[in-house]
Amino acid sequence: MTGLRTTVNGLSVEIGNVDATTSLLDLLRETLNLKGTKQGCGSGDCGACTVMIAAADGQAEFRTVNACITPAGAVRDKHVVTVEGVADGDDLHPVQQALIDQHASQCGFCTPGFVMSLVAHSLRTDAPKRGAREKLVTAISGNLCRCTGYGPIIAAGLASCDAAGQLDHLTYAAQQPTSTETPSQQADIGYRIARSEAELGQWLQQDSAAGIIPSQSEPRTAAKLIAGATDAWVAVNQEAQEHANIIDISRIESLRVISQEQQMLNIGACVSHEALLEFFTTPPNRSAAVEELLRRFGSPQIRHAGTIGGNLCGGSPIADWSPLLLALDAWVTLKSATAARTLPLSEFFLGYRQTSLAGDEYLASVQLDIPSSWSNLSFEKISKRYEDDISSVCAAIFLDLAERTVRQARIAFGGVAATPVRVRKVEDMLLGKSLTDVDDGLLTNSLASVITPISDVRASADYRMQMAKTLLLQRVQGARKAD
Amino acid sequence: MKPHPHESAKAHVTGKALYVDDVALPSDCLYVVTGVSEHPKARLLSVDLQGVWRSSGVVDVLTAADIPGENEVGAVLPGDTLLADQHVEYVAQPIFAVAATSLKAAQRAVHKAQIQYDIESPTLSVAEAVAAQTMVSPTRRWGNEKIVERLAQAHYCVDQELYIRGQEHFYLEPQASFVTLQDDGLLVVTSSQHPGEVQSAVARVLGWHMHKVTVVCRRMGGGFGGKETQAAPLACLAALFATRRNKAVKYRMLRHHDMVQTGKRHDFATKVKLGCDAQGLLVGGDFEVAGKCGYSPDLSDGIVDRAMFHVDNAYFLPDHRIVGHRCKTNTVSNTAFRGFGGPQGMLAMEAAMDALAYEANIEPLLLRQRNLYRPGFDRTPYEQAVTQFVLPDLIAQLEVSSDYWARRQQIKQRNQENPRWRHGISLNPVKFGISFTTTHLNQAGALVHLYTDGSVQVNHGGTEMGQGLFTKVQAVVARAFGLPMEQVVNTATRTDKVPNASPTAASSGADMNGMAAQIACEQLKTRLTEFAQQQLGWQGELRFSDGMVRSAQEGAQALAFADFVHKAYLARVSLSEKGFYRTPNLQMDKDTGVGTPFYYFANGAAVSEVRVDTLTGNYHVKRIDILHDVGNSLNPAIDKGQIEGGFVQGMGWLTSEELLWDDGGRIIATGPANYKIPTAHDVPEAINIAFYGQANAQPTVHQSKAVGEPPLMLAISVWCALRDACASLTDYRAIPELAVPATPEQVYYCLQKANELAS
């Protein structure tokens, strides 16, 4: 990739030549010699490489991301703030001073990441009470510390976040876009940022015509589409995976919107988890189930970068969005340069990490009917650790009762089969019945007959089975009681 | 002494603290990745590296045959190879190493090797190793057969087996070394708790004398024992490439390589038979602990010893037998980890004490209190007498401050009323022996320089891994000369400043290096006193305080420290001194299991309360109360940090951190995505930490006590509290088995067992 323009800590920089698979972390550390940001894991799990990113025009708020799994190309024309940038000369940021005062660093390797997460938290204006301990703990849930036990870090956050400075020393630069001209994307080799679906379609068609994309049945080997790259870049780091042709679709405006037409929601594939958290915690679409899913989904850093489309396209059986959307009977729109098709999400997952996306297609959006009551939807997750962990099992259950009779039942699980699954056999046992007439034993037997959990690093097959049954019964019994 | 901030705190928060990975590199620097075994046990039939050599960016490739010196990096006993030769003995054992012009080039190259294996049948578990008697070093047996009869006659007796899983260190900074050529020698910048061992290992593989190798460590991004021996192979490979290619070489492990290639805390299979009389007084214990050492000795001999030393925990045992196996398995060689076997020995005992309490129908805390070491009941199994009886009073204080008994009563009552959410509570003591049980390691050196402007440098053999050692030693020196902290700098650990230093381990860092620094200061002060008396005509002793030097005499003369030092310089007085310290009165016969392995004991106790969802096994720790014995604290802020951080690390080991292997001997917890150390959410807001506040009776530096390891074991109270919550399902009539770690899944199974016991 050539001529990467960006702003780092208020200073505009232009880098002549960067490999397309360079991470933001390597760009900062190796190219720009900013060694304060650390690499702890290379997979976006420890937060030692946390930095803040905002649009270069200063419009958007700063959001934390993991620099290790952020492509360098993704910060073109953005403003990156690192630990070196938060102090104003010799004047430490209040967060930094509080960390010193509270003895919140021991080995210090995780500290720059915590500084960034705490500064970003202190800059948020939307939180009703920034100083609340719970919010603070959430803000640092993507940062691991192995030395302190977190107590002093939380104390430092509480002591500083309401009084924290606004990074005024960076404002001037942030208000000056580094470049007014649109960079010549086409000339770039390796990493291209698509600005519109038309452009994306055109590139996919060109690549396809050039024979780069072999056939519909084979996985996409040449043009690697990325949005948040939170999954793709893990492989780039760990396997030194090479991509000669990366297309970044995260800035296509039409893929970044949530729109509502009558009772239908249309969610663009590149809407971030954080944007969805905001959407689903705001009336009229406040959903406790979606909130439960998203509060425990990755970390703030992952939620800022990762997208709903990326979560689905991975095709993972333990992607939390999939069961929830299955329980909402969602469908997806897949597009290529010349065509678009819509199919139920349940038909999207073909096998373990296999989806029905063809080589020249991309996932454009997810559609769902807004339920009559969001409270009919529940989401429960079982994992080894409460925060920032992948589900062993998760259950999304939509139950609509009218006059003691089950009118709608849609039940989906993650972590119990090679794909996320709807358990229609179980649903059929509930539909049209009064819950008091439903035999719990028969219900769980039926569930056991249609799911095939396995043993792996997260849980045993037996525990997964027991938990799937438990989560189902918990919901049914709860509804029975409420009825 | 004062809660001075960590000497690097400002550098930490501004990103200016440099670690090995941050060293500025020359543009032609080489990067290292190793090619590793895919099988746990096999003979290497052929290793074809042509594809590796041809891979883009590759500059050099090394195998065992290319090592000019010894292919050996063992710290104590031989058997730890740098690169596999003929045989591989665990999955991910390095077979060859690649140096390339970039990390990614090296990463890509290692996959291009063609290796043919003659696969052999591996030993993957402790049980298999015990059955086949494959050991990395001989089994030790202490005590005698008499115990069998004693237990047979005991009024109450329990027979407990507990398999205790290991733990990944997960230091935030992965292993790293950087090597450059310097004149005829090498400069190794390492992240190691034992630079002296790195020096000796590098010299050994190169076939050089140690004097040509200088090793430096300014700071580590966490160590926890994981960088005691495990840092050396990286330095060795980098040094080999550096000397072969005349280039600077960096070897920094990727996290997912570090997770599978470096040693961890040992799994232990433990068996405890424990008996007491009708009053709940222990009659003795019969213990068997078997450590999963992995393929090589590394430090396992001492680790299993320390497990054996700590099966008594805090309790007097009239009779005992303790057997310790060092099991050789075809897995990565396990190594030091905070507590060094002590936590596993202690946990086995604490689990058995709970079982015995249920058997004898005594409140677990009362059984514990009744059996604490006390006057007249003071002999440990290894015949060292306990002389400071801290725990009876410490626990009595904690009972009150944590409101233990009232809460226990409330919890029992609440559990009866609420079938789904069950609370559990447990108070557990910790007594931990301080000193290296390998006696010769209990020595330390320090170097103190006074400069003509009155500023001071101190250097010692200890390393800074975040535990605050440099800050503590800095304070010892500042206090010795009556200077503000800022006037003293503790410089990076270097093998050319203090030679032959022991590892910074066994919680001994401040005890030994602080004492060595203090001795150097006292020697300098003696010399300065002579100078003042002879050359300045001052009378009597000197007083160093508030940045001034005064004679003790009435109407005393006084000079600012800087002026005084400058005068001494002009008078040609040496302003530099080394101090040397050896911990006194230690001796141990490990074959008979009798001796004085420890200088003193550090003590503490914790109360943990948990809340368990009986439907799923999910739980949360609600409250923690800790009272810990640090002697006179050298730095209350740092000591509190060690207690809190050690506790949470121990809690992770016993709860969410599940170090799993598959049936083929592969570690399947390969990174933070599937190995879960605690996050901020897992630590309760209610965590109350206090010091016991009694000076160490031994003449340690300022009567302080070691604090690095002991607090980790306080987290045993979390595991016991989870088990207590599960036992509530039996109406406290029986105690179900609980696995280690107690993940939500394992708590769920414990709840099922409790239900079976109840019915």
Instruction: Give the CATH architecture of the largest domain in chain B.
Output: 2-Layer Sandwich
Estimated helix fraction of chain B:
25-40%
Quote the average pLDDT of chain A.
90
Give Rg of chain B in angstroms: 27 Å
Highest-level CATH class of the largest domain in chain A: Alpha Beta
Number of helices of chain B: 19
What gross morphology of chain A would you assign?
A: globular
Query: How far is it from the N-terminal to the C-terminal residue of chain B, by CA?
Result: 57 Å
Tally the beta strands of chain B.
29
Largest interface: A-B, 78 and 79 residues
Main beta sheet strand tally, sense and closure of chain B? 8 strands, mixed
Gyration radius of chain A (Cα, Å) is 23 Å
Can you describe what's shown?
The complex is a heterodimer of chains A (483) and B (759). Chain A has 483 residues and is of the alpha+beta class. Chain A has four domains: 175 residues, Ubiquitin-like (UB roll); 58 residues, no CATH class; 117 residues, Uridine Diphospho-n-acetylenolpyruvylglucosamine Reductase, domain 3 (2-Layer Sandwich), CATH 3.30.465; 109 residues, Enolase-like, domain 1. Helices cover 30% and strands 20% of the residues of chain A. In chain A, the strands form five sheets. Chain A has a five-stranded mixed sheet. In chain A, strands 9-10-15-11-12 form a five-stranded antiparallel sheet. Chain A has a four-stranded antiparallel sheet with strand order 16-17-18-19, with helices on both faces. The relative contact order of chain A is 0.09. About 4% of the residues of chain A have low confidence. With 759 residues, chain B is α+β, with helices and mostly antiparallel strands. In chain B, helix 6 crosses helix 7, helix 14 packs parallel to helix 15 and helix 18 packs parallel to helix 19. In chain B, the strands form seven sheets. In chain B, strands 3-5-1-12-9-10-11-20 form an eight-stranded mixed sheet, with helices on both faces. The model of chain B has no long low-confidence stretch (mean pLDDT 97). At the A-B interface, helix 2, helix 3, helix 5 and helix 16 of A face helix 1, helix 3, helix 17 and helix 19 of B.
